[in-house]
Amino acid sequence: QDNGFEQFIINYCNEKLQQIFILMTLKEEQEEYVREGIQWTPVEFFDNSIICNLIENSKCGILAMLDEECLRPGVVNEDTFLTKLNQLFATHKHYESKETQNARRVMDASLLPQCFRIHHYAGKVTYNVTGFIEKNNDLLFRDLSQAMWASRHTLLRSLFPEGDPQKVSLKLPPTAGFQFKASVATLMKNLYSKNPNYIRCIKPNETKTAMLFTPELVLAQIRYLGLMENVRTAGAFGGPAARGLPGSDGPHSPPRCREGAEVLLADLAFPREELAFGHTKIFIRSPRTLFDLEKRRQERVGQLATLIQKTFRGWRCRTQY
C-alpha cells in the first residue's frame, strides 16, 4: 500500500522486461509476417516505451531529476524533487500527482500531496517520495572504503575495490538509481543477444489456496501481461510453429522445394486455413496441426528405418548365401 524508492526501481525493471517481451514477441512476429508476405490482420498492442522513457530518459526522466536533486547545492528535500516532476510532466499521460490533478480539476482523495502516481503497463502505482533522496544518495564515505580495502581479509578487500588509493576518484560516487539503471541496461543487452523463452506465472487467488481460481484476478493479470495480444498475434499464423522450407536460404525458396512441400502437405489434407506459405517458411496456425505433423514425421522415420534395415539385411543374407 505504501510504495517507496525500492518499489519504484523494481517496477522500472519490470517495465524494461515488459518492453523486451513486446519487442521480441509481438513486434518481431508481426514484422516477420510482413517479410514473409503472409496475409493477416494486424493486432494492436500497447507499446510501453513511453513509460520507460518517463523513468529513464537521461535528460529529463524521473531518475535523472532525482540525481539532479541529490547533487544540487543548498537545501535539498523531496518537496523540491516532486515540484520539479510536476512541472516536467504536467501533461504526461502516464504521470499524475495532487498538483496535476488540481490543474485538471480532478477530485481524488487517494493521492496524497507527497506522492506521485505512474500509470504502468500493469496498472497504476502510487509512490511516496519520502526517503527517495536519502535512499538514492546511498553513499559510502571514501575513508570507510579505504579502511575495508586495507583489510587482511581477502573477501572484504575484494568487495571494496574503490578503496584502492591508486584508484581514488574525486568524482562523487554513483547514486543508487544510476547504478540500478546501469545494471538494468546490462541485463537488457544480455537478453537482446539471446533467443528467450517465456514462462508467465499467474497468481490464481489471494489466499495461496490450492485448486482455487479467482476469475477476476486471473483475467486482470492476463490483460496486463499482454497475453491476449500475444495469443491473437500467434493465432494469426503462429510464429513458433513456423518451419523453414528445405533448402531455402535466400529471399525466395527454390521452386522445386516449395512445390514438393505443397504437394506433401496437400496429400495430408489439412484445412486450407491451417497453413500459409511465406517466401522462406511455412506458417502453421494451431499447435494441434504442428503436433500432428511431428507425430506423422516420427512414425514415418520409424517406417523408413525399418525399410533401410530390411533392405540391408536382405542384401547381406543374399551376399553371404
From TrEMBL:
CDD domains: IQCD. InterPro entries: Kinesin_motor_dom_sf (IPR036961), Myosin_head_motor_dom-like (IPR001609), P-loop_NTPase (IPR027417). The keyword Acetylation does not apply. One of its GO terms (biological process) is actin filament organization. Residues 184-206 are annotated as: Actin-binding. GO terms for molecular function: actin filament binding; ATP binding; calmodulin binding; microfilament motor activity. Keywords: Actin-binding, ATP-binding, Calmodulin-binding, Motor protein, Myosin, Nucleotide-binding, Repeat. Residues 1-298 form the Myosin motor domain. The keyword rRNA-binding does not apply. One of its GO terms (cellular component) is brush border. It comes from the Eukaryota. Belongs to the TRAFAC class myosin-kinesin ATPase superfamily. Myosin family. This is MYO1A protein. It comes from Ibidorhyncha struthersii. The gene is Myo1a.
